[in-house]
Fold these 2 entries.
Entry 1:
Amino acid sequence: MLLGLLLLCSSLPARSDRPQVAPERLIEEVRAFYGTLPPDVGFEAPSEAVITALRKVPRPLFVPESQRDKAWENRPLPIGHGQTISQPNVVALMTDLLQIEPGDRVLEVGTGSGYQAAILAEVGAEVYSIEIVEELARSARERLRELGYGKVHLRTGDGYHGWPEAAPFDGIIVTAAASHVPPPLVRQLKPGGRMVIPVGGRFTLQYLMLVEKDAQGTVSTRQLLPVIFVPLTGSH
Ligand code: SAM
């Protein structure tokens, strides 16, 4: 089984030839994680759109070859440059928290491997994603194109400043921990939009925050869960 997975994943196949290894155990673990969430998070179960996306996006192809045998496990994995691909249960929850409707414009800060961007694209978002490490941005671009996610817009740079030319966004997802909610990102959120962002110290206690801007432009922030993310870097 393991050998089969490794062989199937040894190159980047065309979209129709993707390995169809069903990550059912992973899906079960994601469902179990939602069952542990406090009621105020607002989800008792993952949405069907997110489950479908988790099944469809081939996570083994987003990690280095040395990590592929672990890629259907519910854990973060190293992707080089001291960075990680996030844990699937957190990818699922952050995606659900954005309440994406097909065609919504979503900004991601921290492209990393491109996995979260592919999940967002699968649930119907028009994705804009920014990565600060040039080499990660280059390989994510290539990977997303080869896997059929060529419509994801990618940019190299400091995502703290957002993507003003593409704003406003229906949703913003930040996949590295910031010391505070970046004001430029709040400005680039549409009225009615939502942002999910881990906020806290470098490798110390961080909380996943939900930032909502109502139709009148009033911003409210809720602390949802303790999390651990790599830090948001850059000279902002
Ligand atoms: N979403 C990614 C994925 O699906 O693989 C995982 C993201 S990883 C946990 C965090 C990423 O944020 C890293 O790739 C890191 O280089 C990037 N990053 C850190 N600070 C950043 C910044 N200021 N602007 C853009 N990207 C940043």
Note: Residues 160 and 232 are 8 Å apart (CA to CA).
Entry 2:
Amino acid sequence: MSMDRKTKKNNNFGKRFYLHTFGCQMNVHDSEKMAGILSEAGMSHSNHFNNADVIVLNTCSIREKAEQKFYSELGRLETVKKNNPKLKIAVAGCIAQQKGDALLKRFPYVDFIFGPDNINNLETWINFSAQDTGERLKKTALAYNPEYHFMELPVKREEGVRAWVSIMYGCDNFCAYCIVPYTRGRERSRPARDIYREVSALASQGYREVTLLGQNVNSYGKNMPENIDFSDLLCMIHEIEDMKRIRFVTSHPRDLSEKLVNTMNKLPKMCNHLHLPLQSGSDKILFQMNRGYSYREYKDKIMMLRNALPESAITTDIIVGFPGEKEEDFQATMDALKEMEFDGIFAFKYSPRPNTSAVDLPGHIDEKAKSRRLSEVLDLQSDITYRKNKKFEGSTVEVLVEGYSDTDKDKLTGRTGSNKIVNFHGSDNNIGKFVAINITEAKQHSLYGILIHSFSVS
Ligand code: 5AD
Ligand code: SF4
């Protein structure tokens, strides 16, 4: 996208956009790209839809609950549009991709629909609709976009020290419960040189921590002409002097290689945290989920990691109430949580998703049993997390300071490499720097401590 476009006066100049993001980090980052496009078109961000000329809802369809939140927000917009007929409404993301024209029919006040592979089309639409010809441009942009992973879209990030960078799009795994391969399409990796360039630019803008994003980052580079795998990519990024910390999400246990563990061990900027979704402790359920590993194999990978990096934190995702999950399968998940002692988990009730193969499996579990299993999992894990956090009391940790805490406004907040949130009293000039904190108190979701000193590297 050229600078001309940014500086040239166009009909969008001074208009305001409201952008609401539903769902995961992937979507949050996609929204940063949408905000980048809208800002380059001369528009500014509005905090409320009532003051906006353009509204974009970036949707998520991973579970039914996320979908419902979107529908209730969209419902509210009908009267907003009635009161302001010039208002343009766009629906982006996975629900847009999945429902397509049906959404336009059901909600005639929606103007534009585009999928995760067509974010670049937002620019064309916004420019056309800015002409205000009175004609409504009803449009859907949902086609598979073979060029998308080569595109360099402008990104409007929140100011701060942490930034997210996409390294690959889509997923080829087809886990039986998951809608992602249908909404985000096949797996495609971005060229390593583009990623390198983006991370270098972030480092010179003052970002100090980068999280490399993809549905399955361990298989980065598959089917690419360059012979670069994920470990090679990490080594490249590691060379960027002013980028001090590197993280990545999400990994698939099947693709977690010894090479990657050795790379994490060898590169000092790699954060000692791995998010490795287990989903279930029962081999029968893992097989039905099409996960491609047994609990034993998962455990072996964790042992490999813990042997190489004993200090590393491990978090996971768990689904309860998958079709056919008997009480003994659920107990296998509880046993796995006790044995693995994860630092934290995200746990979900299984939610049937259109197109996915699990919908047709026998033995769907009723809501009540799912809710009971979910609270048992959460109760168990909350004890484990608290116990693990307690072990930090009395120790000194290195924290990258992000800013003032939202919940505790007079304290600064930051994270350890292992992704623990640490709050402490400090001053503005600690922000963006690495500091040593002595932990005095561990809570369920965060650690509290006293500032010992600031490191000279910033
Ligand atoms: N129901 C419940 N949880 C799901 N996830 C993905 N699809 C579903 C579904 N249909 C969870 C998985 C995945 C995380 C991002 O969301 O645990 O790892
Ligand atoms: Fe969904 Fe499985 Fe792909 Fe993750 S790996 S996005 S759970 S299909």
Note: Residues 1-7 have pLDDT under 50 and may be disordered.
